[in-house]
Amino acid sequence: MTLRLPALLSAFLVTATLACAQATPTQPNFLIIMVDDLNDWIGPMKGHPQAITPNMDRLAAEGLTFLNAHCPAPLCGPSRAALWTGRSAATTGIYFHIRDDQIMDNLPGGVEAVFLPDLLEAHGYHTLGAGKLFHAGDMAHSFDEYGPGFSFGPKPSENMRLNFEPNWTGPRYTSTDWGAFPQKDEQLPDYDIRQWAVERIDAGIQEPFFMGVGFVRPHVPWYVPQKWFDLFKRDEMQTPPYLPDDMDDVPAIAQILCTIPGFPTTEWAQLAGEWQAIVQAYLACVAFTDYQIGQVLDALAGSPYADNTIVVLMGDNGYHLGEKNRFAKMALWERSTKVPFIFAGPGIVADATSDQPVNLLDFYPTVLELAGVPARTPLEGYSLVPLLRDPERADWEHVSLTTHGRNNHSVRDRNFRYIRYEDGSEELYDHRTDSWEHTNLASDPAYAGVLERLRQGLPQADAPLAKDSHLDLTPYLRERSAAWRKP
């Protein structure tokens, strides 16, 4: 039998359509880029006018940047534990650092969780990663394969510092220091992490895949080669606003909780003439990491996976660079909680921003919805897919919760930050007029309705501190940790 041309063409189109359907994966790939201690000092978020981040800028131009994203906890260990389990610190009791392989054993009775990579693997995903994804890399062995781990070095020597010795300001609890070191990018762990990611993409990956790449800088010490410092002129660096009396209207418990001996203070940095040098060093580290990110993005763009891969870039917590007399994380104010959170890829709006309050806890359910994978355990975040499709939608009624120690919480909506401490003390800041959080409005009767509304965002109950979760930086934290472990 001879087919006429229309029938022949129809048969060809059917065959071609079937072939395309078989060749195109139904599930997207994921490339997750995590950056340690990265606050909003990047181009897309305009947190600092002198930031140089061309690769994060171009990723933002290809997708959606959340301008009001916050971490579950202002410390990498508990923030990452929440990210990978989809359960908040108030639910798990993991308020501080914990070994990756101890997370599941520390969950309170009745609390269920599964690591996101493990759940994706059960639905056909190949998972792979490198660097700092969990707090210690992947001691939990959650990924199918893992490349190089990470370190915070190299350092000049075990006992040598370049510009800051913690004993100058208190007990030696921090590796905070800054300066041009080492000589070459190749000597830093982030170079090896980047190379692994590029080589794995170039070599080909089983699809669908979920790849995590965890970079270390700008975690302290702020060491990168001289060429990255040369991008910035120390004497021209802009420092954030600082008010000497900024803490006068802050509850006493907040001052105790967030003062960490051994870390630099703004008063010290001013007297020592080092504040601009610190800002230069932090931005140099960010620029260095931005370049590593660019290399990974270039590899993806030149691969067969470019059109079917969703890229997510995030920080794990924010970081103070002089605001409120501190250079540290571990606080419930904006600078410690606000993080970059960028999504780009098929089906996601391009060159868009959203000021809706979101949280890294939202990452887990968002990935599941994008991948078409059902949740196995309860999740506490919310899928961001509606915002990835329409950033302007007005029916997003969620707030963003950050927890630092048992019964210490911050609640963020579009306009306000509300903080409540375990002794009942409160703070309230109106970000429409006070983005630096200089004026605590909690005692102002005009804001009683706002306070009452935001109090509804607090957890109903906080789990005891998990037995293997710890942060012994101060006598206060050691004392409170013993009390927080009791039911």
From TrEMBL:
<dbReference type="GO" id="GO:0004423">
    <property type="term" value="F:iduronate-2-sulfatase activity"/>
</dbReference>
<comment type="similarity">
    <text>Belongs to the sulfatase family.</text>
</comment>
<keyword id="KW-0106">Calcium</keyword>
<dbReference type="Pfam" id="PF00884">
    <property type="entry name" value="Sulfatase"/>
</dbReference>
<protein>
    <submittedName>
        <fullName>Sulfatase</fullName>
    </submittedName>
</protein>
<dbReference type="GO" id="GO:0046872">
    <property type="term" value="F:metal ion binding"/>
</dbReference>
<feature type="signal peptide">
    <location>
        <begin position="1"/>
        <end position="21"/>
    </location>
</feature>
<dbReference type="InterPro" id="IPR000917">
    <property type="entry name" value="Sulfatase_N"/>
</dbReference>
<keyword id="KW-0479">Metal-binding</keyword>
<dbReference type="InterPro" id="IPR017850">
    <property type="entry name" value="Alkaline_phosphatase_core_sf"/>
</dbReference>
<keyword id="KW-0732">Signal</keyword>
<feature type="domain" description="Sulfatase N-terminal">
    <location>
        <begin position="28"/>
        <end position="373"/>
    </location>
</feature>
<dbReference type="InterPro" id="IPR024607">
    <property type="entry name" value="Sulfatase_CS"/>
</dbReference>
<dbReference type="InterPro" id="IPR035874">
    <property type="entry name" value="IDS"/>
</dbReference>
<keyword id="KW-0378">Hydrolase</keyword>
<dbReference type="GO" id="GO:0005737">
    <property type="term" value="C:cytoplasm"/>
</dbReference>
